[in-house]
Amino acid sequence: MEELFYKTYGGIFEEELLEEIIQVSKAIDFKEGDVLIDYNQYIKMMPLLLSGAVKVMREDYDSGELLLYYLERGDTCAMSMTCCLGEKQSEIRAIGEVPGVILMIPVQKMSEWIGKYKSWMSFVFESYNNRFNELLNAVDTIAFMDMNDRLLNYLFEKSKIENNTIVYKTHQDIAKELNTSRVVVSRLLKALETEGRIKLNRNSIEILVK
Amino acid sequence: MEELFYKTYGGIFEEELLEEIIQVSKAIDFKEGDVLIDYNQYIKMMPLLLSGAVKVMREDYDSGELLLYYLERGDTCAMSMTCCLGEKQSEIRAIGEVPGVILMIPVQKMSEWIGKYKSWMSFVFESYNNRFNELLNAVDTIAFMDMNDRLLNYLFEKSKIENNTIVYKTHQDIAKELNTSRVVVSRLLKALETEGRIKLNRNSIEILVK
DNA sequence: ATTCTTTTGTAACATATGTTACCAATGATT
DNA sequence: AATCATTGGTAACATATGTTACAAAAGAAT
Fold first, then answer.
1. Where does the pLDDT of residue B182 fall: very low under 50, low under 70, confident under 90, or very high at 90 and above?
2. Chain A contact present for B116, CB below 8 A
3. Backbone phi, then psi, for A70, in 5-degree steps?
4. Do A132 and B135 touch (CB under 8 A)?
């Protein structure tokens, strides 16, 4: 676990900060489906992702839901920083997607380090920036792509974070994350299979050609 | 102009910082349609909005465009901060919507002040946070609302920044900002007029009921 | 007055997406 | 083996949105 930490952050934080992080942080294992952050929740910890993947979702006031982006090794959650710094409630939901480990940093340390360590401040800004760009990316996807392309995009992204050409999701799961209906997903997937781009199985989809 | 500056930022920055800003910044007037920031542009100044309104747009790789949100008095552009801090290119376009004045802060000062003034650092984080939430809002709009509601939402927003129940836009203008077609906008507007919610005129739309 | 351009209205149609309903296949449970 | 729940396939239809085409109205330019 500690070697994973050094492998991930050793290059960007100074030695002193690395030690402080080890001292004050708490490592937490998460599984698929674990709700790490939920809507309207106050957050007192800032999470650093060491392994696995976390999906960040946005919910409509009535029923709708949508996948915004995934967090991976080395990432952190912009919403958490916001909440930590400003005593605000979360606007998003973060759910474990690929099991892994997060380091939880207490909120006081998070803000204390901003003044103390240049590398930490850079990291915080860089993270904000990355999340902002990922959100822009999500906007592009829903604003400019049709459902077929969004579906393909989803399969590629999911395949990437799992590091596997087989995506283990039901049509219903996918429909939820794309905020559409199961029938639509089945229809489009079947067409993609006919084109020879994927192979459908129960509970999984194999990606044949990018 | 200076009194406008103090009215806007006097409450949040310490005296010393206020003076520094006055010294190093350059005030720039902008008109409607002025392109303040464009795609792929490197930014060497951070803008503080003193008056007027700026619209922030996102462009598709081929032709499509979409209004993300407006910036108003006291706001700044998250993309600029990103670019200033990280030598990155802009992912958005910022265009004058309501004529006004911006203060341009040189990039070195922008980052120097982060270590020097607590209030500046808070402002920068707060701004990042606000822009992030506005982007989330834009996601909600395009992901969960139908075109009719997006159109109404657009009219209300535009009316708010203009502080006028009459919105001076052609159907074509609106279509572009919502990334749809003129015919669709005309159709929906006509229906809203029939419902008695708006009144249509050439080159303008009057909002009757919220 | 005539011509031209911009703006808006509208019809008719194409397409993408959402909905409902039903069935078949699969795998789990009893 | 019988039953049940989950998953996926498909038809048929409803609706929202996009497209093309054309005309009328308003205003600008000559």
1. very high
2. no
3. -105, 150
4. yes
